[in-house]
Amino acid sequence: MLLRMPYAQYYSKVLRRDALALGAGTLAPDAFANVLISRYLGIPMAYTAFWAVNATLPNRTDVYVSMQLPRFPSSLGVIKLTYRIVLSAYIVWLMVRRYYKPYLHLRRNLIRYGLDGDESNMYEIVVGDATGVVLQSPVVSTAFLIDTLCSVDSFAAA
Fold first, then answer.
1. CA distance linking residue 90 with residue 102, whole number of Å
2. Does the pTM exceed 0.70?
3. Same domain for 90 and 47
4. Which residue in 9, 75, 77, 94 has the most C-beta neighbors within 10 A?
5. Does residue 64 share a domain with residue 13?
6. What pLDDT score does 157 carry?
7. CA distance 133 to 100
8. Strand order in the sheet with 33-40
9. Are residues 86 and 153 in the same domain?
10. Please, are residues 46 and 67 in contact by the beta-carbon 8 Å criterion?
11. For this UniProt entry, which segments traverse the membrane (predicted)?
12. Which region, left, alpha or beta, applies to residue 7 given φ > 0 means left and ψ of -120 to 50 means alpha?
């Protein structure tokens, strides 16, 4: 029975013990009730209530699970939005500086000097994706980690 319950890996020892006893038939359905408070960095993320009742069918028990997510202040959303706008501006600046600026230098040199043994005056420069250059920045990686750790409201909804 424990394996069929949602998010069983996060249950407390008492809740696991009671769920196993309920599944084995050693605990009466009306004795099965528990409240689980899920925390992340000490912040309550979800309040989950479990209870069981006798089913209308013989030899069956219905287990109910109800979850309530906490309300987070709207100022948290404003702070996160500001943080993400600043981070996006930094990423654009980083892409221009580390990725697209060398393209202009390469273009000027090709126009000025050309390639050895090549008589043509037209060149095609293929610019790929700048993701690798951006993610190699320790500042961006740390900023992504901080953003993830500060997104407790998203974790609660997930």
1. 18
2. no
3. no
4. 94
5. yes
6. 65
7. 11
8. 33-40, 43-54, 61-68
9. yes
10. yes
11. 81-100
12. left
Quick one: tokens of 64?
């109910």
Tens place of pLDDT per residue across the chain (158 aa): 666 777 777 788 888 898 889 888 898 898 999 998 888 878 888 888 999 998 878 778 888 889 888 888 889 889 999 999 999 999 999 998 888 888 888 888 888 887 877 777 777 888 888 888 888 999 999 999 999 888 877 766 66
Number of domains in the chain: 2
Q: 130-134 contacts: CB < 8 A, separation 24 or more?
A: 130/95, 130/98, 130/99, 130/100, 133/94, 133/95, 133/98, 133/99, 134/91, 134/94, 134/95
Q: Do 79 and 136 have their domain in common?
A: yes
88: domain range? 74-157
Q: Indicate whether 63 and 85 sit together in one domain.
A: no
Tell me, yes or no, whether 10 and 81 share the same domain: no
CA triple 19-24-27, angle to 5 deg: 65
Looking at this protein, which amino acid is placed at residue 135? L
The domain boundary residue, chosen from 44, 68, 92:
68
DSSP-assigned letter for residue 73: P
